[in-house]
Input
Amino acid sequence: MISSHRFSLIAALMLLPSFAFAHPGHDTSGMMAGLMHPLLGWDHLLAMVAVGMLAVMGRQKVAWQLPVAFVSFMLIGALMGINGIAIPAVESGILLSLIALGGLLIFGRINRNAYVPVLSACCALFGVLHGNAHGLELPANAQAISYISGFTMATIALHLAGCAVAAVCANKGQEITLKVSGVVIAAAGLFGMLSVI
Output
């Protein structure tokens, strides 16, 4: 059973990004800006942690295909955005990714390798959306390579954080932690959707 102290810490970390708005106002020049962008945008932070949790959920070994798919396609989405190719309704897509990822954490008992390709495809789609938002926010005169390097490193760190949280809470504690995290993540996505309607 997960201890109340550990649960409180996890809940606090999950709720912390709700005090930051997703995208407006970020500095978008250089590596530090890239590093901070996923950490300050609650939508990015929650999605990336969720992908890490899904990679561990109910498995003996980490399904690294999920975070690799997310990061790889995030870079493709970022390059699209930098070149002025905007995915229609990208912000709504990002919020829907939170609802989907949260739902998978709440209801999924994904412990068979047969599901990994489907989850990898979902993570790739979500990665493109998140990356496109990053790329669209980068001004033409900004240091693109440094910025992309920064948000890629932050994304990998958030995936690893999600893996670590899910791995630390083994057995029954893991199931409770993932379900609670899923509720928080899906609710944040739903709240975001309702606020933009």
